[in-house]
């Protein structure tokens, strides 16, 4: 059951990123030069790290890397088609760099947070022991 919860939460984060990326006037809680690039980087790092919690296989993680980087490029293309947002190569770079940071963080040990949480609850689903 927890695996389904983690996946649902991850897909909800993906939907939120799409919504915030494509809405006409996204909220801007903090404003300084380059804050939007930082937001892109953090959002994509979070997505990658989150899904790396659920998918432990390195091949799957590489597919996720490609998929999330492609998502970042695709969203920029969609923004250019809307007429109210801007297409920026720097955003694509920030998105992809965020994915790389999320992947690296998972490789460095942060990819075990949900499994540790599961261990505390006694569940074995993420470890594949359903």
Structure summarized in a few sentences:
The protein has 130 residues and is an all-alpha fold. Helix content is 72%, strand content 0%.
Task: Provide structural commentary.
The protein is an all-alpha fold and 130 residues long. The chain is 72% helix and 0% strand. The longest helix is centred in the middle third of the chain and has 25 residues. The chain has one domain. The protein contains five helices and no strands. The chain starts with a helix and ends in a 9-residue tail after the last helix.
Q: Which residue ranges are poorly predicted, with pLDDT under 50 across at least 5 consecutive positions?
A: none
Quick check: average pLDDT?
Answer: 86
| Biggest pleated sheet | none
Approximately how much helix is present in the residues?
Answer: over 70%
Oligomer: single chain
Number of helices: 5
Task: Tell me the radius of gyration.
Answer: 16 Å
Head-to-tail CA distance between termini: 9 Å
- Secondary-structure element order, as H and E? HHHHH
The class by helix and strand makeup works out as mainly alpha
> Number of folding domains?
1
* β-strand amount: under 5%
Cα shape: elongated
Number of strands: 0
Search tags:
single chain, 130 residues, mainly alpha, 5 helices, 72% helix, 0% strand, elongated
